[in-house]
Structure formats: C-alpha cells, structure tokens
Amino acid sequence: QVQLVESGGGLVQAGVSLRLSCAASGTFVNAMGWYRQAPAKQRELVAAITRGGTTNYADSVKGRFTISRDYAKNTVYLQMNSLETEDTAVYYCAADLMNTILPRNYWGKGILVTVSS
C-alpha cells in the first residue's frame, strides 16, 4: 500500500509562484504525478513523471509548471509559476506501480490552491 501526503497549497495572487510537494511512503512507486479538479469540472492531469524522468504536461500548464522528483525522498514536486485564476482547484497527488505517464493507482487526499485576481 502507498500513502501520499500533499503539502504547499494555499491562497495566492495571480502571477506568483507556488510549489506543491507530495511525499510517498510504503511500496516503491514508478510513476508519480499531479491532477486537479476545479469546481464543477472533471479531474484532469496536470503533470506526471516516470521513473526514467519522462514527463507529461497538460497543454494549459506547459511553460508555466514543472514537475520534478527526488527519488531519495520519494517525493514529487510541482513548481507552478505565473499562476492564473484558472489554476484554482484541488490538486491531487497520484502514484502508480507501473511506469506510466498517467499514474492512477494511488491518490492523496488533495490540497487546495486558490489563485485570486
């Protein structure tokens, strides 16, 4: 079993940066990533990273968000720059035993990011 604990969310103004962290414990996972769900919208992939470092980004965040991973700490990060009000959502960390660009096996509880104008 894998436990995922997110941190780093909060209320920020548009244009600033924020970094989310997700620490995994339990079984080693190959892929990790971030999804988000805005009010009245479906959950969508934001970014994912495989064990080999292959990344996958949503078009809406390319050039603004960067996903990275610290294997020693079993932690994945999401650096979010130039935040927009449309980035407001609950962000969920995900992990997968398979080395996939769409990790979905395990989920964190979610962390709220609110971007004000």
Folded structure, characterized:
The protein has strands spanning 2-7, 10-13, 18-26, 31-37, 44-49, 55-57, 65-70, 75-80, 89-96, 106-107, 111-116. It is 0% helix and 54% strand. With 117 residues, the protein is mainly β.
What ranges have pLDDT less than 50 throughout 5 or more consecutive residues?
A: none
End-to-end C-alpha gap:
40 Å
Quaternary assembly: single chain
Q: How would you spell out the order of helices and strands?
A: EEEEEEEEEEE
* Secondary structure category: mainly beta
**What characterizes the major β-sheet?**
7 strands, mixed
Number of helices: 0
Q: What is the averaged pLDDT score?
A: 96
Based on DSSP secondary structure assignment, what is the total number of beta strands? Answer: 11
- Determine the strand fraction and express it as a percent band: over 45%
Topology (elements, then pairings):
Layout (H helix, E strand, L loop, with lengths): L1 E6 L2 E4 L4 E9 L4 E7 L6 E6 L5 E3 L7 E6 L4 E6 L8 E8 L9 E2 L3 E6 L1
Parallel strand pairs: 2-11
Antiparallel strand pairs: 1-3, 3-8, 4-5, 4-9, 5-6, 7-8, 9-10, 9-11
